[in-house]
Design goal:
heterotrimer, A mainly alpha (about 300), B alpha+beta (about 600), C mainly alpha (about 325), A: mainly alpha, MetI-like fold, elongated, B: about 600 residues, D-Maltodextrin-Binding Protein, domain 2, Dipeptide-binding Protein, domain 3, 7-stranded mixed beta sheet, globular
Chain lengths: ~300, ~600, ~325
């Protein structure tokens, strides 16, 4: 045991990460995809500032040298639209992930650590959040409150989506609670806040991180779905808007001309999902040393 | 098939058994012969809704199993011009209408259609909201005072005492006629006394009577008849989740004209499904849908024939003139010069739209009908001309700072162009308009509202300065101008006087001036519009001309395109469809075409 | 047994409280929507080309079904009706009871969802066992990846993709509608066949969406059971592989009941998108319809039904869990 710990201490976190990452080529690909889309989200709108050019004489053009992915209903370049639209999708997902992490972790930690009345009342709230059917709720909310912008959309998704994380964090906290180091901390008379923030949080963090990456996939799906359904007002185009226009206005299911307009955002969402799933495998191994040692 | 099938089949079979139980199990299939398949543009088929024409989601199909005394030809020159329906002919006096029913008119159970059925139906019509004072609308309602049986096939319908509604004929002919034996029991015996009370001069008694009528109306509209009893060419056999099936009514008064043995009306939830059906050649005719060019090509390739007809609707950009700078006529005119309506139409409504040319608040055809050629030529066509726009703006104190226009108070001018989710043509158009305005120097952003209900609520509350709106509703010019100088503009008619309101909660969001000055004359737009509804078409002309010219000058809205009704017919199974130009027919559902002797099966 | 009944009772009470909370929440929610049913009906008719005076009259009838009482009074009225099992009458269906409207839509959600769940359960559990046993091989890895991917793909993306591949590209499966309309519904071969072929795409979508959950849970469950001492002991004592597999399966399948509860809930909520894409006249489409028409009672009813399904699925899952797992039963 002592040699093992010593061996582990010798390895720097970066080297471990690299080793874990490089063990399977899929993980590198996953990371590459995530980095690619993140760059797209950051740099995309800078590449094409201002409004997208329209060209009423060149509607639903096929892919060509000038328009690699063809054009849309207004003659705008589909590639540009996909690139510019990435920011909304990823920014929203990032915001909602942050909100979920903050709410879910806090509530889960507090509930799991304090138990008793705090626990049961917080868990009833969590049950409520989990029970309300999420997507239909979002559809209704979108009519009441205009959350077309990333910040608002991210907040709404986060506020309605933290239930799963809270429940998971709570059960993890419950099991950690009985471990020796917490008993020791309590014995030393350390404050609850100290124990929760300094002792529990670091142990839970990896677990939260994994749950978050998973929920990011869900958030991307939900936000794009709302636009696809055409219930959320929008001020600029994004992947969901593109899908909506392609299917309901462009007849992409019936006409091959609008096909690249349909497939471009669809493939982006699929790729991004694939990237996260592949990369998650690496995270899983990093944070679950049991897996690492075994294989 | 593929490998998905064998996995799903056993489970799905289980599902089917249960679904069948949910369906009506009337197994009376048509015994051979042609089946006419189409879509009812006004009724997407609602499984679970009653077969009741008074239900808001009801499964009833005008011209097939739902009959009126006549069918509207949408003739702008004569609002009372109708195709015969259950009425063979009719004669009107200023205060009454005498209707001659079809000699052989029968219900699908073999019994006669009688004057009593007409009486019951008109009483029901008065329970269906028609008896309420049409708040905010400058037209008169269906004020039936009495229905008298003259003989077995003749019925006289009188206006309420004092009523002289010139549209009375039209309103009566458009009412749905239902059988007394099905609906009669829902109508209280003293209903005509209640109706009389509702039209009386005692306001309290009238309101009480109207409440009573509305209560009856609710019972009637929730009623679900067990079977369909139809006097039309078809009778509803069953409603599946995805379609309504109607079989030919062997008691129909003009049976020889009806060629299809069966009509199948398919369900749809969006345009893209209708396109799909057409692309597969599954429809014999299809109603108007907003369509992109690429889909049009696919539909034509599948052997469908395009038939265009007039559509009395225009898509326009409306202003809230209580918001600066849109209160300035020069600003609205300048915007009209900047927006290239042809380019916008090409993106927004490439197939079913024609760019507006004369901007009179009516559709192009109506402008040409009502105005003299000289008057039409004198109208400002607002051809795209940014130089003129610049002059106009500079004339009212706007300045240009680099590429960007500044308001007279020195602040930069930006526009939020409001549209609404689900109106893909408006959304597409707004991206082009935003581009044009932005490159002219007014940074413009299209913005969307979640749904039409919210859009209308917020618009009425004055929340949007610039937004899309439907105008030029027709075919009557009075309806078109009420859209501009009616309730949304604070005008309402009570008897002979016109009231005007503005401010919060008034419903007035257009906020135009009450009068315009045109060629040195004062034009009272609200009053003129109110007068239109009480005048015979021949007397409307001078007023319409004034309104058209004033609207063209002042531009309370900037019309972008007139909609064209683009329908499709497919002659694979049937021939002799109405042709382009037969607008009166094309504006009615195919059931009416058949009654008029059109649509024969191919042998 | 007595303890079991008491637990069941407690759970049911907790469930009822949750139903009340949700009913209150949705009541407030739906009534804060802007717009009202009468105006919507008017605009809908105007856009269909109905003359203004007729549209006005018809809209007035619809508005007549909207309650104009103060909201608090409406709320207590609503709760009172709910206690009597009455969901009220629909506005957009002009007074047809909400229960009837929902009943006619429910089969088109419940049956495809259940069919999808059964299919995905069979494939997912089998896949999970294989993925666990072969977890160190390439195929095992791919199988696990397929599960993670399927669990991650947004439902409507999958639905669109299937529709595009099988309908537009290869043209082997119908899309939209529930059956071929030229056929007579009834217990006849062609109609049943038609309903089945029309159900293939939606059911496959539901199945693929839940497949990942089953597979991943089953895999990790089997992996952890494989490491348990008693399995090791059984192997050492020479108990036959078949019997050992039975032990493993019995113990490994337990966590799946939690997944079941989540799946059922998810699918009722997620059916909105899938039904919209495949034009299935189920609860999801009904909910969209009711939102668009501001049909408050219908919205409330549809929401409540979906929520009750989730709550019941949760209770059922917990009960099953306690019946099957001796450890929980004794605790």
């Amino acid at each position: 045991m002592s040699t093992l710990a010593a061996a582990r201490a010798r390895r720097s976190p970066w080297r471990v990460t690299r080793r874990v990452l490089l063990r399977k080529p899929g993980r590198v690909i996953g990371l590459a995809i995530i980095v690619f889309f993140t760059l797209m989200a950051i740099a995309g709108p800078m590449l094409y500032p201002g409004q997208l050019a329209v060209d009423p004489d060149n509607i639903y053009a096929s892919p060509s040298g000038a328009h690699w992915l063809g054009t849309d209903f207004a003659g705008s370049d589909v590639l540009q639209e996909v690139i510019v639209g990435a920011r909304y999708v990823l920014l929203t997902a990032a915001i909602s992930a942050l909100v979920t992490a903050a709410l879910g972790t806090t509530i889960g930690l507090v509930a799991g650590y304090h138990r008793g009345f705090t626990d049961s009342s917080l868990m009833r709230v969590t049950d409520f959040v989990l029970t309300i059917p999420g997507f239909p709720l979002l559809v209704v909310l979108s009519t009441i409150w205009n959350f077309g912008r990333p910040l608002e959309m991210g907040l709404v998704l986060g506020v309605t989506g933290w239930g799963g994380v809270a429940r998971a964090v709570r059960s993890q906290t419950l099991s950690l609670r009985e471990r020796g180091f917490l008993e020791a901390a309590r014995g030393l008379g350390l404050s609850n806040t100290h124990i929760i923030v300094r002792e529990l949080l670091p142990n839970i963090a990896p677990y939260v991180a994994m749950n978050l990456l998973l929920s990011v996939i869900g958030f991307i799906g939900a936000e794009v779905a709302l636009f696809f359904l055409g219930v959320v007002p929008f001020t600029s185009s994004n992947w969901g808007v593109m899908l909506n226009e392609a299917v309901f206005a462009g007849g992409a299911i019936n006409s091959p001309q609008a096909l690249s307009y349909l497939l471009a955002p669809l493939v982006c969402i699929l790729l991004l999902t694939l990237g996260i799933v592949l990369f998650l495998d690496a995270i899983d191994e990093l944070f679950n040393p049991r897996l690492r040692e075994r294989s | 098939m593929n490998r998905h099938t064998w996995v799903t089949a056993p489970v799905a079979a289980l599902a089917v058994t249960a679904m069948l139980a949910a369906c009506s199990t009337d197994n009376k299939a048509a015994d051979g012969g042609a089946v006419y398949t189409t879509i009812s543009g006004t009724n997407p088929i609602t499984a679970g809704a009653p077969m009741n024409p008074f239900n808001a989601s009801g499964n009833y199909f005008l011209g097939y199993n739902t009959m009126q005394l006549g069918f509207d030809k949408l003739n702008p020159a004569d609002p009372n011009d109708f195709f015969p329906g259950l009425a063979k002919s009719w004669t009107a006096t200023p205060t009454s209408l005498t209707v001659q029913l079809q000699d052989k008119a029968k219900w699908s159970d073999g019994s006669d259609v009688t004057p009593d059925d007409v009486k019951t139906s008109l009483a029901i019509a008065l329970t269906q909201g028609s008896a309420t004072v049409g708040a905010g609308f400058l037209t008169q309602g269906l004020d039936v005072g009495a229905v008298k049986t003259v003989d077995a096939h003749t019925v006289e319908i009188d206006q309420a005492v004092g009523g002289k509604n010139i549209n009375f004929t039209r309103l009566v002919l458009k009412q749905t006629i239902v059988p007394t034996k099905v609906y009669g029991s829902l109508v209280p015996a003293d209903i005509w006394d209640t109706i009389a009370a509702s039209q009386g001069s005692d306001a309290t008694a009238a309101q009480a009577a109207i409440d009573k009528l509305n209560a009856t109306g609710k019972t009637i509209s929730a009623f679900a008849p067990q079977t369909d009893v139809s006097a039309g060419p078809f009778v509803l056999t069953r409603v599946n989740p995805g379609s309504a099936v109607l079989d030919r009514n062997k008691y129909f008064y003009d049976l020889p004209k009806i060629s299809p043995k069966q009509v199948v009306l398919r369900h749809y939830s969006g345009n893209e499904q209708i396109w799909g059906y057409m692309k597969n050649g599954e429809l014999d005719s299809a109603p108007y849908t907003s369509i992109p060019t690429n889909v049009l090509d696919e539909i034509l390739k599948a052997g469908n024939k395009r038939v265009d007809s007039l559509h009395y609707v225009n898509a326009a950009i409306a202003f809230n003139e209580s918001v600066a700078p849109y209160d300035k006529t020069a600003v609205r005119q300048a915007l009209a010069y900047v927006i290239d309506r042809k380019a916008v139409t090409k993106v927004g409504e490439p197939v079913g739209g024609t760019a507006s040319t004369h901007l009179t608040g009516m559709i192009e055809q109506a402008t040409a009908n009502w105005l003299t050629p000289d008057q039409v030529n004198a109208l400002n066509p607002y051809e795209p001309d940014t130089a003129k726009a610049e002059t106009l703006l500079k004339g009212v104190g706007f300045t240009k700072n680099g590429d960007q226009w500044m308001l007279p108070d020195g602040k930069p001018w930006t526009i939020t162009l409001q549209t609404v989710n689900g109106f893909s043509d408006w959304i597409a158009a707004s991206t082009v308009i935003a581009n044009e305005l932005t490159s002219f120097g007014i940074p413009t952003k299209p913005a969307l509202t979640a749904d039409f209900a919210t859009y209308k609520t917020e618009m009425a509350a004055g929340k949007y300065a610039v937004g899309f709106w439907l105008t030029a509703l027709g075919p009557q010019a009075s309806a078109a101008y009420q859209r501009l100088y009616g309730a949304d503009n604070g005008f309402s008619m009570r008897g002979a006087t016109v009231a005007h309101v503005s401010g919060k909660g008034s419903g007035n969001w257009q906020n135009t001036p009450e009068t315009y000055t045109v060629g040195g004359n004062t034009v009272k737009v609200g009053e003129l519009t109110a007068q239109l509804s009480a005048l015979a078409p021949a007397d409307q002309k001078p007023i319409i001309q004034q309104l058209a010219i004033a609207t063209n000058q002042e531009l309370p809205v900037i019309p972008i395109w007139d909609y064209t009704s683009v329908q499709f017919t497919n002659d694979k199974r049937f021939t002799n469809f109405p042709q382009q130009g037969q607008d009166a027919l094309l504006n009615n559902p195919p059931g009416v075409w058949m009654m008029q002797g059109y649509v024969q099966g191919k042998q | 047994m007595k303890g079991f009944l008491r637990r069941l009772l407690m759970k049911l009470i907790a469930g009822l409280v949750m139903v009340w909370v949700v009913a209150t929440f949705t009541f407030v929610l739906v009534h804060s929507l802007p717009g009202n049913p009468g105006d919507i009906e008017y605009d809908r008719l105007i856009m269909q080309g109905t003359p203004p005076e007729i549209a006005q009259a018809k809209a007035a009838v619809v508005a007549g079904f909207t309650s104009h009482e103060p909201l608090l009074q409406q709320y207590f009225g609503y709760l009172g009706q709910l206690l009597h099992g009455n969901l009220g009458v629909s506005i957009s269906y002009s007074g047809v009871p909400v229960a009837d409207v929902i009943a006619s839509a429910a089969p088109w959600t419940v049956l495809p969802v259940l069919s999808g769940l059964v299919v995905s359960f069979i494939i997912g559990v089998a896949g999970g066992v294989i993925a666990a046993v072969k977890r160190s091989t390439r195929w095992g890895g791919l199988l696990t990846l397929s599960g993670s991917l399927m669990a991650g793909i947004p439902s409507f993306v999958l639905a669109l993709l299937l529709a595009f591949l099988f309908h537009t590209l290869w043209q082997i499966l119908p899309y939209g509608d529930t059956s071929d309309v030229t056929l007579t519904p009834g217990f006849n071969g062609p109609y049943i066949g038609s309903v089945i072929t029309h159900a293939v795409l939606p059911v496959s979508t539901y199945a693929l969406l839940t497949y990942g959950g089953w597979l991943l849970t089953m895999k990790s469950s089997v992996v952890s059971v494989l490491g348990d001492d008693f399995i090791l002991a059984a192997e050492l004592r020479g108990i036959s592989p078949v019997t050992r597999m039975r032990y493993i399966a019995r113990n490994a399948i337990l966590p799946l009941f939690t997944v079941l509860a989540i799946s059922v809930g998810y699918m009722f909520g997620g059916s909105v998108l899938i039904e919209d894409i495949f034009d299935y006249p189920g609860l999801g489409n009904l909910l969209l319809h009711s939102i668009g028409r501001r049909d408050y009672p219908l919205m409330g009813g549809a929401f409540l039904l979906i929520t009750v399904a989730i709550i019941l699925a949760n209770i059922l899952a917990e009960l099953l869990y306690s019946v099957i797992d001796p450890r929980v039963r004794r605790a």
